[in-house]
Design brief:
Blueprint lengths: L6 E3 L15 E5 L4 E7 L4 E6 L4 E6 L3 E6 L5 E6 L5 E5 L4 E5 L5 E5 L1 E2 L2 E2 L6 E3 L5 E4 L21 E7 L4 E9 L2 E6 L5 E6 L11 E8 L2 E10 L8 E3 L5 E5 L2 E5 L5 E6 L6 E5 L5 E6 L2 E6 L9
Antiparallel strand pairs: 1-24, 2-27, 3-4, 4-5, 5-6, 7-8, 8-9, 9-10, 11-12, 13-14, 14-15, 15-16, 17-18, 18-19, 19-20, 21-22, 22-23, 23-24, 25-26, 26-27
C-alpha cells in the first residue's frame, strides 16, 4: 500500500476493480451506528439507517442529507424488491416490513412457529420475489439498538419468505450470529456472514456460502475469513467478487474466496452498497459516517 493510499493490493486483479485516483468522500457524519445502505436509482438517492438514533436518513447528490423516517423502530438492513419497494428489517418491531409506494408500511413477517423473531438484521430479495433475511440477537441484547428482551427462538436463523403465499421457512439454523447476506450474480449461491466474534473473539468471523437448490440451502461451507473485525454487510459485483465490511474498511474477495484487496476506511464499516447511475459508486456505512468511493466494479444487485 503506497503511503497515503486508501487501497491495499493483495492480488494484481484488485487493480482492475478500483480507480486508484478516486478518493474516499465523507458524505455525512453524525450517526451513532450507520447501517443498511440501499440505493434507489430511479430517485437518485441513498437511504440508510442510524440505528441508535431511531432514524433513517436520505442522501441525494443535489440536496445532501435529510431525515427520511423518524422514529424508525430501530430499523437496520434494507433492500428493494423487484417492484422497487423498500424492504426493511426492524430491531424494534422484531419484524420484516415493506414500505408501499404510498408510504404505508406492511408487516411481512414478525414470528416463526408461534414465537417472535430475535431482531431481523439484513435482507435480500431473489428474482422470484422471495425474501431472505437473517435473525441474530443484536437488537434485543440491550436498549441501544432495540429493546432488551430474552430470545424466543431457540436458534438464530436464516429465513426464506414467499410474500405471495406467506410461506416462511428457516433455511439454516446453525449460525451463531447470522448477519449480512448476498446472492451470487446468477443466484446459485447465497453468501451469509457470521459476525459472532463481535462479542466473543473465539467465535466465528467468517462468511459462509450455500448452494441454492429449489428454495433450499445445501452444501454449506466457509467461504472466507475476515482478518480484521467482523463481516457485517456484504455485496457482490457482476463478476462475482464479494465485498465485505470489516474493522479496517472494505475487504474484496474473488469468487473462490481469496482476499484480493482492501479499501481502508477510518471507521469500522458496518455495511455497504453499490449505487449511482452506473452502479460503480460504493457507499459505505461506517460507525458515525457515510462514505463513498468510485470503483471500477459494477454492483450486481437489482433494481
Amino acid at each position: 500500500m503506497a503511503e497515503g493510499s486508501i487501497y491495499e493490493i493483495h492480488d494484481p486483479r484488485f487493480r482492475q476493480l478500483i480507480v486508484t485516483s478516486a478518493g474516499l468522500d465523507e458524505l455525512y457524519s453524525g450517526c451513532r451506528w450507520a447501517e443498511g445502505p440501499v440505493w434507489f436509482n430511479d430517485a437518485n438517492q441513498l437511504l440508510w439507517s442510524d440505528i441508535p438514533n431511531q432514524r433513517m436518513l436520505r442522501w441525494t447528490p443535489e440536496g445532501g442529507v435529510s431525515v427520511y423516517r423518524q422514529p424508525s423502530n430501530f430499523t437496520n438492513g434494507h433492500t428493494r424488491d423487484r417492484q422497487g419497494r423498500l424492504i426493511s428489517c426492524e430491531h424494534g418491531g422484531r419484524r420484516v416490513t415493506r414500505t408501499e409506494i404510498d408510504g404505508s408500511i406492511t408487516v411481512l413477517a414478525d414470528s416463526f412457529e408461534g414465537a417472535r423473531f430475535n431482531s431481523p438484521n439484513d435482507v435480500v430479495v431473489k428474482s422470484d420475489g422471495t425474501i431472505w433475511f437473517t435473525d441474530p440477537t443484536y437488537g434485543i441484547m440491550s436498549n441501544y439498538e432495540g429493546y432488551q428482551a430474552e430470545p424466543e427462538q431457540a436458534t438464530r436463523n436464516v429465513y426464506r419468505l414467499d410474500p405471495a403465499t406467506g410461506e416462511l421457512a428457516a433455511v439454516v439454523t446453525d449460525f451463531i450470529q447470522p448477519n449480512g447476506l448476498a446472492f451470487s450474480p446468477d443466484e446459485t449461491i447465497l453468501y451469509v456472514a457470521d459476525s459472532a466474534a463481535s462479542h466473543d473473539e473465539s467465535l466465528p468471523r467468517h462468511i459462509r456460502a450455500f448452494d441454492v437448490v429449489d428454495g433450499r440451502l445445501v452444501n454449506g461451507r466457509v467461504f472466507c475469513l475476515i482478518d480484521n473485525g467482523i463481516p457485517d454487510g456484504i455485496r457482490i459485483d457482476v463478476k462475482g467478487n464479494l465485498w465485505s465490511s470489516a474493522g479496517d474498511g472494505v475487504h474484496c474477495f474473488d469468487p473462490a474466496g481469496k482476499l484480493i484487496g482492501k479499501i481502508r476506511v477510518p471507521q469500522t464499516v458496518a455495511n455497504l452498497a453499490f449505487g449511482g447511475p452506473g452502479r460503480n459508486r460504493l457507499f459505505i456505512a461506517a460507525t458515525r459516517s457515510l462514505y463513498s468511493v468510485y470503483v471500477a466494479a459494477t454492483g450486481a444487485q437489482r433494481p
